[in-house]
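Schema walk-through. Below, the input block comes first and the output block second. Nothing else is stored per chain. Lengths vary across the set, and this one has 264 residues.
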Amino acid sequence: MTAPKALVLRTAGINCDAETVRALNGAGAEADLLHVSKMVAEPGRFDDYRILVVPGGFSHGDDVAAGRILSTELIHDLSGELQSFVDRGGLVLGICNGFQVLLETGLLDGSAGRRAERSIALYDNASMKFECRWVHLQAQETACPWLVPGEVWPVPVAHAEGRFAVRDAATLAGLYERGQVALKYVTKDGGAPSYPEDPNGAVDHIAGICDPTGRVLGLMPHPERNLLPWNHPQWTRLGERAAGEGALFFERLVDVARGATVTT
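--- output ---
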């Protein structure tokens, strides 16, 4: 079976690009790492890919606001191409800074390419400090086709502006109704967390959301940093594991890009 092609975008300040390429290639994709300026110069290249990933880091130093400059570049130069990519069935993943970028572009809330008042945002962590630790995620009943609802898995976080917030209760209810709440912070046993299990104080402990189609997913934690059994600091206590749980996350993404249906 032909390996689906994946595009990993990079720009100044992105620092998780190599790990993301490794994760995609290990999952069976054929990943290219390209600077955003290359895609601006040759926007037709989007047609070559089934997966697009905006990786983590601090694009442009997070000057102005986290992800703001890169998202402005994408809105100005590539908004039509990005929306067309999603409309034709492409899968988009934004990790940490990439989540911040996707949210700013409007791809997650349907406001891409039009002026609209924002109803969701990522703010400073409630602790008002950079949080770098391992947490647990639980996949929700979601439109995202490569997540398995109820599954709990460990993953690291590393961010200062990851607190998911909504404008009002109606906005939050709409996210649930459309299956957009994709991932939540939980305890190791799947229970309701407190700090530091929820590292940033997100509303309803939300760690990641998708767009209504399920094809665009953004999350604050870093699955690309949990690919090998010994990536976890307590790996000797976790029992037999053939790979880190993040590897399965990317394998399922690639399977969906091939047209497969993900099951447990």
